[in-house]
Fold each of these.
Amino acid sequence: MYRVFSGVKPSGDFHLGNYVGAFRQWVADQREHDAIYCVVDLHALTEEIDPAYLREKTYEAAVNLLSVGLDPEICTIFAQSHVPEHPRLTWLLECTATMGELRRMTQFKAKGYGQETVRVGLFTYPVLMAADILLYEADRVPVGDDQRQHLELARELAQRFNSRYGQTFTVPQAAVPTVGARVMDLQHPERKMSKSVDSPLGTIYVADEPAEIERKVKKAVTDTDGEMRYAPEEKQGLANLLELMAVATGETPDEVAARYTRYGDLKQELAAALVELLRPMRERRAELVKDPATVHQVLRAGAARAHEIAAATYERAAAAVGLLGLGC
Ligand code: AMP
Ligand code: TRP
């Protein structure tokens, strides 16, 4: 059976980009594969974050994963910091990765390049991510388009380690959706929808009320030529709306474009479709929030299972590089 692994940072609220680019696939994968999903709280420390806020968002991330439809009876959900092998394997992989290849990571370049005060952890973040993936011998990693380069690094590190020290790690494949891999901000369609950017009208949150969703879609930035066609390069705002509609209905963006003539009609129907898409999540969330014992129990059980797998992989890697095990 295939092993699927993915992670989400608990540094803010879940938005439509997370759902469309990642969680949708996570939910589908849990039925057919051995799926393991991680709330990567250690990754959230790479940028300034208030401790109480981090604790709250980590808990909420678990609630959200359950409310998007993950079932802890058939998949594993856990928090990264509960499994000590993540930082342990990161060290072995930091001694495999090079400065040059980390400097080429576009996410680091965008966030911290050239700043003396940037945290070392932000620079080595992709190595921690590689450790997450390699510990679980994941075959497939469902992520949005923004994570492609990090996945490429994880593959490269696995291959380098294997050729240097002997077969140790499974080389993972990225699984990026064909439609909706990059949901754009509704107000700034040239940049991706993101929880780290404060864009109150540009970001639709999974927990948004129907009226808010309608307001945000209605105000979404398009263009002035009024021509209904799918052209992601020239007409980014409209293309984003067409893609979202395509995700909601299962059509292609071109098929959606062929059904409408006016932007206003598309927006109105898209808002209704998104409200329906997110409704079951909002309802499940309301139930779960009342039941912290269940959520904690899911995280405890998840950590136990994850730890079992991660410890075996770590021991193998540590022995391969020549660390003297306690068994001597
Ligand atoms: P993050 O919230 O950055 O931890 O991302 C969690 C998952 O959501 C990752 O697989 C990302 O690739 C995906 N993701 C985040 N933002 C977007 C977006 N705007 N469009 C599509 N996928 C996204
Ligand atoms: N870096 C990813 C993001 O920002 C989150 C992440 C951390 C992840 N570890 C992972 C995703 C392992 C997939 C697999 O979205």
Note: The CA atoms of residues 6 and 118 lie 26 Å apart.
Amino acid sequence: MSFETFNFHPSIMAGVRALGYVRPTPIQIQSIPPIMEGRDLIGLAQTGTGKTAAFVLPILQRLLPGPRDDVRALIISPTRELAEQTCETTNELGKQTGLRSISIYGGVSMEQQTRRLRSGIEIIAGCPGRLLDHLWKGTVDLSHLEVLVIDEADRMFDMGFLPSVRGVLECIIHSRQTLLFSATMPNDIRRLVQEILHDPVTVQIGCMAPAATVSHALYPVKQHLKTSLLKELLRSTKTESVLVFTRTKHRTERVAQQLARAGFRATSLQGDMPQYRRQAALDGFRAGSVKILVATDIAARGIDVLDISHVVNYDMPDSTDAYTNRIGRTGRIGKNGEAFTFVTGEDTAMVRELERLLKKPLERRTLQGFDYAKPAPDNENIRSPRQSGRRAVRNGWVKVTVT
Ligand code: AMP
């Protein structure tokens, strides 16, 4: 199937060609026709499937002939990064259409956003909190809204943003087309769907398992040796860009610093960083000047870097969904990727769940020449994230310093 089948306007096809898309992805094949018919839609798809273009292209097609300067499409995103990337995709695909979009999120000047909004905007990609601020101030007017997209709804719920999303929804009283994308369907999202979508079409891409283009390996290791193992693995493995996931913000910073001190082009990305630092980290990672990005799950949401060859789970994710989302950063659209997961004795139950999800035993690897018996240094904080606040003396060698 080709993009010609959808009969997009030539100015939109120019955007498709400029981004180098040749064939639509499965989520695009299934979603674009019903969205173009004006139907509400639930898209059950993980990141990396091409879901952004699946809603952006029909939105551009719908908005192209109508009036300008009114906000006619709103995409609600859980993170600043995702809002930025959605806006970027919209700008690139819609470059020849003359439609204008902006991203709106907190942590940056509201004045600047207000000035841009006044200049005439048709599409907003924004985070719910800052959107509400603008709505309350009257600087965003949604009375002409035609299409509403709630993107990564499950993550929005995880991050506690559902009340703000509901706040935004209360400001859109008239009928509009509503599209909701989510990798999973927790009960709260199901309830939201029932309340705000009318006779929706449901489109599901694959089961909620990681892409087949990713291979998975477990590296059993003691907690205090994780950073040393990571450095050795990075030295001995041929990689492009690498995304390393840790469970806590503090650990994200520490691991990135340790890698940078060891000479790796590494930086961190976590939610407590000021926006300019987050943006610099992402820009560097996208441009390739930063090769290793150490991030928390939430901060990494929406990272769209095609050359990620490896995802390293420095800490085991909390759920199989989180694993799928992390791994969705590599092996994107036909590329191969590798997922390495460091496991300690505490992760046994999660390993079993992952093996159930992947329907096969996961390969256990050891790195040749690595000293797995090295004792923990006395002064290092070797507390595992799950042992928070507990003093654990195990195996006769663990000395915990709680920081
Ligand atoms: P998404 O799932 O929206 O985050 O998209 C993942 C990546 O796939 C992004 O880099 C998109 O630019 C890219 N992409 C989307 N649609 C296509 C397509 N039809 N062909 C090739 N790449 C695509």
Note: The chain has two domains: 3-205, 214-374.
